[in-house]
């Protein structure tokens, strides 16, 4: 499965970074549970540092029903009234207490009349704990919301914390990832989610796994009935990885527009059940599996008797690129830094200058900085073959 989901924190203690803020949140929710009303929290900071995860963690750790909403739910009168009705009672049908999450409140547009006012009204009249998230808590559009909340800034997670987390995950998953790669990934700017995605990308493209997933995808697309299609899920299967491959290759396998439409509709239904799984309804996983296997197989009216070269998911390919680029920049930065007496991050800023100054002098630059052919090709924005051919001409 996708590692960001597998290693999503279940308790506040499972999270990394922002220790002081997490302790404040613990005291805040304990006050609510002891019937001591508190202002809503407006948690702000960059992406991938745990703002939204906090609400999910509190829901899980303290057995609260999580009601999730987005700023887009407040963009018109009908949406506002629906939100207010949904959030009006403090307890659920199962007598569980609620916690309300309003994500990305600063995403409201200036044309979203009434949205900020509606959120501010909920914040002021709340009878249950509310967490709001924002990238920029000081946006003028949400000034009326801000005054009704207690502000809490989440800082970027330290490189050391991310590196330690990645090591633990790689050990548990038995990944063959070098110290250098983990070091490069940890340069994620404090974005935990991005770092875990990059780690998975580093291992998701191995030949053995690709061969196995290729066969499972073929079974699903070529199957004629439910039983045949379900064979694709026998053994050790990564559901989320399989789903990414299916999503990427539906238009490669199916040719008729109606077959393609039915297949993507089936995939979207699997997404709906996945959304319910996030609220701890794990019994729905079997429906997700049925939809991604048999549902996709039976979306076609008749089999396509052809060979299809299945494509590697673009999502995973792009994640892999980020890891390679970071590792390359780190290596180049170190080598430039050794010559100009600067740290590698500052040294990497010289790359555009070296590209201009190095034209026609690639071999001398390569020798001076001890660049490899790959590194020089990266700097000069050329292929490795062009670099090699250029060296031959100079010999």
Give a brief outline of the structure:
By secondary structure, the protein is α/β, with parallel strands linked by helices.
Textual characterization of the structure:
The protein is an alpha/beta fold and 395 residues long. The protein has 20 helices and five strands. It has helices spanning 3-6, 19-33, 51-61, 77-86, 115-124, 143-146, 159-172, 179-185, 192-204, 207-222, 226-230, 239-253, 257-277, 285-297, 314-340, 344-348, 351-357, 362-369, 373-380, 384-394; strands at 41-44, 65-70, 98-103, 130-134, 150-153. Strands 2-3-4-1-5 form a five-stranded parallel beta sheet, with helices on one face. Helix 4 links the parallel strand 2 and strand 3 (98-103). Helix 13 (257-277) runs antiparallel to helix 14. The longest helix is centred in the C-terminal third of the chain and has 27 residues, at 314-340. The relative contact order is 0.08. The model is unreliable at 204-208 (pLDDT under 50).
Which keywords apply here?
five-stranded parallel sheet; alpha/beta; 395 residues; 57% helix
Question: What's the layout of helices and strands?
Answer:
Elements: H1 3-6, H2 19-33, E1 41-44, H3 51-61, E2 65-70, H4 77-86, E3 98-103, H5 115-124, E4 130-134, H6 143-146, E5 150-153, H7 159-172, H8 179-185, H9 192-204, H10 207-222, H11 226-230, H12 239-253, H13 257-277, H14 285-297, H15 314-340, H16 344-348, H17 351-357, H18 362-369, H19 373-380, H20 384-394
Parallel strand pairs: 1-4, 1-5, 2-3, 3-4
Helix pairs in contact: 8-15, 9-15, 10-12, 12-13, 13-14, 19-20
